[in-house]
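Appendix C: a fully annotated inverse folding record. The material below is reproduced so that readers can follow the format used throughout the book. The structure is listed first as tokens, followed by the designed sequence.
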């Protein structure tokens, strides 16, 4: 779900009203991909979607980094259906990482050397790659003009995001 910039000034209640109106008038399907702490963030929203809009919600877990996705399973109507959403192959994931590094203006003298490691550590998961790249912009993962990749990965795996 993408929120246009002109909606950013609206209150939460106004945004909920717009979403409920949209759900009343059009059929939608929501895909939640690579959630960050889903049990704390989206449980209330999903209950609202089920209650007001009868909107089907699909949870996508791309890798073992998503341990707490199970907390949302009780909210799903069909708990038996499982589909596999594969990560892209390493070469495509590496090209994705390069383009995203350029887009978010991530720069380091060792960037080309660590991008393959980010792809390997994430198993090609786009959400994990993006998250580690955002972490790489933080000062605690920088040493001069280089990124401290191994420390970044250890913190990512330990959940210190």
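Designed amino acids, in order:
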């Amino acid at each position: 779900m993408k929120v246009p910039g002109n909606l950013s000034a609206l209150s939460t209640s106004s945004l909920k009203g717009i979403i409920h109106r949209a759900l009343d008038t059009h059929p939608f399907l929501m895909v939640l991909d690579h959630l960050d702490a889903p049990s704390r963030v989206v449980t209330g929203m999903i209950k609202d979607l089920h209650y007001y809009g009868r909107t089907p919600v699909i949870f996508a877990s791309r890798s073992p980094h998503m341990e707490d996705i199970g907390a949302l399973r009780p909210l799903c109507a069909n708990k038996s259906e499982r589909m596999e959403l594969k990560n892209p192959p390493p070469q495509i994931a590496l090209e994705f990482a390069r383009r995203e590094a350029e887009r978010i203006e991530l720069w380091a003298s060792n960037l080309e050397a660590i991008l393959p490691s980010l792809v390997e550590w994430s198993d090609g998961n786009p959400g994990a790659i993006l998250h580690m790249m955002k972490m790489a912009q933080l000062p605690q993962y920088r040493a001069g003009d280089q990124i401290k990749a191994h420390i970044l990965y250890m913190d990512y795996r330990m959940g210190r995001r």
